[in-house]
Specification:
heterodimer, A: mainly alpha, about 40% helix, B: mainly beta, 5-stranded mixed β-sheet, 4-stranded antiparallel β-sheet, about 5% helix, globular
């Protein structure tokens, strides 16, 4: 039966994850060009006072699968298979869980912030998927969510870091704030093959 | 005497209560004979006539009923546990779940003068589905998440806060509740206020101190299980159940000891006869529900373990038979093609022995439910003349849009008639008690079905109906909804929805989304109805003043003539109404009507954007009296002066 097949493949996936180090956390960057676990770890939960400015560099991390049509299709399949649709609705507009198509993000709408929310889970019921899904699957889910159009582009990381809205003006008095450069060696949109 | 002064003292209060008692006694003597007969705390509400006609013609809409108007159904019910007429100790007020009050100072003649007496904002914004309780001089309210309880002192002008109890449930529960982080209220018993927390705990609070007396963990919120229903107390036992029909939970009802919170028994809704608590006494009326371990064998192997059947609705009780009645939720997953079989005992009404929990009979309203038609809605226990014979029945408006009048001794369906628009069935086989399914409306994964009615929310959801022994009618807020549905296969992943229904809901023919109706349970016919623009998702209240109260999702609170359905009074509140109205007598002798305003719950679940453009949430209790008169109102600042001007 289809149902049991899904269930078993999940258990197998979870066991494989437990045996390997696929949930991340090691400092060695994955060989396949994915963003480093260190950058993911540096991303704070939402907009925290006291968070160091250096995190802005991690925030600028681009989803290697962003805009990749095959990855978006894979992400859509995962979105359904992992029951994301049960909470966030089949069209992403939210139900038990928040709307993923609008511009409001409790824990940040940058690709790496969305990754972090999926990986770590969130306190109002969002399960942590870091154990059940390897990083490339989560990045594909992020690519699918980005395709809804409500997320923030990684290049706008500075606004996102300060809880501002994409594209808004900044008053001159606020322009003197530290402005770290995006990571020079950061992954680009070419990403790994899927 | 100014009771606002903290030194007012108890002695004064007793003098004051004595005076109120005297006023009451005088009122009883002065009331018209007819009203007095119905206000008396008799064990059983009886209609004025013993041989009531089964199908009297309904009064013309808008007409004023003559004084000798006879009950339209001849229905009566047991008013046990016979709480004081001016108080409200449980969500449904009585074991029969009538939500009927014998108070009649507010009546069809003066209800047009209802004005706001006082309000209370509880600081929470999820859907407010509970009724407040009134015990003695205190009102108790329970908020949605974070499930705070407040005691409000009705002897003080403005009903000041006596105590606040904050149980601090886990925020994880918010994202596990299918239909908003709601709470359907508390129950009072033996000095305790008992209610459920969204994170699967039942708590008992000392009503004098506001301190927790016991707290029992009933489930694990990490599995997706939550608790939203109102506990139901009979004697030394309190009955509670779980929520999570969309989360693949293993549904149950349990009895706890009122004094200690210790679990006495638990009956699951699926699985072996042993854990469902089915034994030799179990005698379902219909043959297809007889057999061994049907809670296992009517499922594909092992799927009963996540088959839901949660118990999140109402419980009623018949003191004569010592049976409790309640319903179970939809089966899981919501995609029916994954679980061929009847999927017992989901979408089922159970009768169980209150002491042992052993099942006496069961009736599955929607075998192999394919549309999310839970059977959790209230079962109102009435005694009805049907075909010239008095029958002890339960009246149940199911999510599947059929109104059932069922023999509550045997589980035999006496009447099953649609009360809302539906097209999932073409009728009811009264011989087998099974609905006849419309094959065009059976979902298959990946295939879109348009105009399937009613949708998952049903022809009526949990919002409870009220019954009046004077009119013999039952009053309910109902829906007029359909959906376009596409099912998707799903797998069970703990803590995620076991769901698979992708849908868009819309209005059924007529265009209105809601309706408030009066139903004759002896004939299975609608007597009158009021169409509402939005889903009518509030509870109902019926009173001896021949007034019925209900609210709308767009914030109107209405009083209606119980005989004719004529709207006598409406007041726009701050937010939509999905709560349950009550009425009570204040320490000042006045009759009050109270209702929570705070839309949410299934009325606003986010897939229904077209249906929820009405109002933002809220969390305010509104209390009404004639002319808004209440202690401390306007320049009339003291209870002393208010009492002197009270008109019995």
């Amino acid at each position: 039966m289809n149902l049991r097949a899904v269930h078993q493949s999940l258990i197998v996936a979870a066991m494989l994850c437990a045996l390997s180090a696929c949930e991340g956390g090691s400092s060695t960057p994955p060989a396949n060009g994915l963003p480093s676990p260190g950058d993911v770890a540096a991303v704070p939960v939402g907009q925290l006072a006291g968070a160091p400015d250096e995190v802005a560099s991690a925030l600028s991390t681009v989803n290697p699968y962003g805009g990749n049509p095959q990855a978006i299709q894979d992400g859509k399949a995962l979105y359904r298979k992992m029951n994301c649709a049960g909470c966030h609705a089949y069209d992403g507009t939210g139900n038990m869980g928040p709307d993923l198509t609008d511009a409001y993000w409790r824990y940040g709408g940058l690709p790496i912030q969305i990754y972090k929310s999926i990986h770590d889970g969130r306190g109002k019921g969002m399960p942590a998927w870091g154990k059940a899904l390897p990083p490339q699957e989560i990045w594909k889910l992020v690519a699918y969510i980005q395709s809804f159009g409500g997320s923030m582009p990684a290049r706008d990381y500075r606004h996102a870091h300060q809880g501002d809205t994409h594209g808004e003006n900044v008053a001159p008095e606020l322009r003197g704030l530290p402005s770290p450069q995006p990571r020079p060696s950061g992954p680009t949109s070419k990403g790994p093959k899927t | 005497m100014d009771l606002r002064a903290p030194t007012a003292g108890y002695a004064r209060k007793y003098v004051y209560l004595g005076a109120i008692g005297l006023l009451f006694a005088m009122a009883m003597v002065c009331l018209p004979l007819r009203a007095a007969a119905h206000s008396a705390p008799a064990a059983t509400q009886t209609a004025a006539q013993t041989a009531a006609p089964v199908a009297a013609a309904p009064a013309a809409p808008g007409a004023t009923p003559p004084n000798d108007q006879r009950s339209l159904s001849g229905a009566t019910f047991n008013t046990a546990p016979n709480d004081p007429p001016g108080e409200w100790h449980s969500q449904a007020r009585d074991y029969a779940n009538s939500r009927y009050s014998t108070l009649d100072r507010i009546n069809a003649g003066n209800v047009g003068k209802l004005r706001i007496a006082w309000t209370f904002s509880d600081g929470t914004l999820h859907g407010h589905e509970a009724a407040p309780l009134v015990v003695g001089d205190t009102m108790y309210v329970v908020t949605p998440f974070p499930d705070i309880a407040y005691a409000l002192d009705l002897t003080k002008p403005g009903a000041s806060i006596k105590w606040t109890f904050q149980p601090n449930p886990s925020p994880t529960a918010i994202g596990k509740a299918c239909c908003d982080a709601v709470n359907r209220g508390s129950a009072y018993a033996d000095g305790l206020l008992i209610y459920n927390l969204l994170d699967d705990h039942t708590v008992a609070v000392d009503v004098k101190t506001g301190k927790q007396v016991w707290r029992t963990k009933m489930g694990n919120v990490k599995t997706g299980e939550t608790m939203t229903m109102a506990p139901f107390v009979v004697g030394d036992k309190v009955f509670v159940g779980d929520s999570g029909g969309e989360m693949g939970v293993h549904g149950w009802i349990a009895a706890l000891d009122v004094k200690t919170g210790k679990e006495l028994w638990r009956a699951y809704s699926t699985g072996s006869d042993k854990i469902v608590r089915i034994g030799d006494d179990f005698k379902p009326y219909y043959r297809w529900m007889k057999g061994k371990d049907l809670g296992i064998t009517t499922w594909p192997a092992g799927m009963w373990k996540h088959g839901a059947g949660s118990v999140w609705g109402w419980i009623s009780y018949d003191p004569d038979s010592n049976l409790i009645y309640y319903g179970t939720s939809n089966p899981g997953p919501r995609v029916p093609t994954q679980r061929p079989g009847d999927n017992l005992w989901t979408s089922t009404i159970f009768a169980r022995d209150a002491d042992t929990g052993m099942a006496r009979w069961a009736y599955q309203t929607t075998p192999h439910d394919q549309w999310d038609y839970d059977a959790v809605n209230e079962d109102i226990l009435m005694d009805l003349p049907i075909k010239g014979q008095m029958r002890k029945v339960l009246v149940h408006f199911d999510r599947n849009a059929y109104a059932y009048t069922i023999d509550r001794g045997t589980g035999q369906v006496l009447i099953a008639a649609p009360f809302a628009y539906q097209n999932w069935s073409t009728g009811m086989d009264m011989k087998t008690g099974r609905p006849i399914i419309n094959p065009d409306k059976e979902p298959k994964p990946g295939i879109k079905i348009n105009n399937l009615c009613p949708p998952d929310l049903g022809g009526k959801d949990w919002q409870p109906a009220a019954a009046s022994p004077r009119t013999g009618l039952v009053y309910a807020g109902i829906f007029n909804l359909c959906m376009n549905l596409t099912d998707h296969d799903v797998g069970y992943l703990p803590s995620t929805p076991y769901d698979g229904m992708q849908m868009k809901r819309h209005a059924a023919p007529g265009g209105n989304l809601g309706e408030f109706m009066a139903w004759n349970p002896a004939t299975g016919k609608k007597v009158w109805s009021i169409k509402e623009k939005f889903m009518t998702m509030s509870g109902a209240l019926a009173t001896a003043g021949d007034v019925v109260f209900y609210g709308t999702a767009d914030g109107w609170f209405r009083a209606v003539n119980a005989w004719t359905g004529k709207i006598l009074w409406s007041q726009k509140l701050g937010s939509g109404v999905i709560g349950q109205p009550i009425t009570y007598t204040g320490p000042d002798g006045r009759q009050y009507v109270a209702i929570y305003s705070g839309v949410g719950g299934a009325a606003t679940i986010k897939t229904d954007k077209s249906l929820r453009s009405f109002l933002p949430g809220g969390g305010t209790l509104y209390v009404f009296s004639i002319d808004g008169d209440t202690p401390g109102m306007g320049t009339d600042a003291t209870l002393e002066s208010t009492r002197a001007s009270a008109k019995p």
